[in-house]
């Protein structure tokens, strides 16, 4: 194979993205803390309009009191609300967790289903949430969680053009090798936070600059106009970097939506 460039076929560049970012961020993993699939689902629900750091501060006490769906229904919505209050939108989130627990006990004996088709039927879970839970908790790759960073970077790299998370996921599933579906989101989150930031990406120090169309364009402008800062392309899905978690589904009807691009309905 010849030298890769910014115009090389998307599948070849996607493979290079995975290789290079894996070498750069060998410890790129989800930051939400959990012990079971149910706990991960709850943590993802709580991450709407909330940082992962704050969620991780709340979940230890929450999971001690409500470690599984059965314990949730043995408690009260009011107690659940008080425990999740620091994450914001606590009434909606508590109701979503309660409905999710009820659904799982009624339809799956309290266990999480292990297919996207079944998991998206659980209140609070859309396609992005399903991809995160299946991939992280069970190692099952049935989709790609397209969060804020994964969507923005995939577009900047010229791999996709879609801004809708579901459409973007479908395109990426064709371009990215299935064995890399789970890692894709984590790698792009790590790179998006460290280098390819929303407003001012650090293209000069990027390990992907030779295969990134937007990066090449930005560097070209910077060379011609050393004092000029290239304007960021308009991206309506852009959120302030590092402000909110990117895991929650955009179109989930049971929890408040965050300004994501993402994992993840």
Please sum up the structure shown.
This protein has 265 residues and is mainly α. The chain has helices at 10-24, 37-46, 52-65, 69-73, 77-84, 90-108, 116-119, 127-138, 148-156, 165-175, 181-194, 213-224.
Topology:
Blueprint: H1 10-24, H2 37-46, H3 52-65, H4 69-73, H5 77-84, H6 90-108, H7 116-119, H8 127-138, H9 148-156, H10 165-175, H11 181-194, H12 213-224
Helix pairs in contact: 2-8, 5-6, 9-11
Task: Explain what this protein looks like in three dimensions.
The protein is an all-alpha fold and 265 residues long. The chain is 50% helix and 0% strand. It contains 12 helices and no strands. The protein has helices at residues 10-24, 37-46, 52-65, 69-73, 77-84, 90-108, 116-119, 127-138, 148-156, 165-175, 181-194, 213-224.
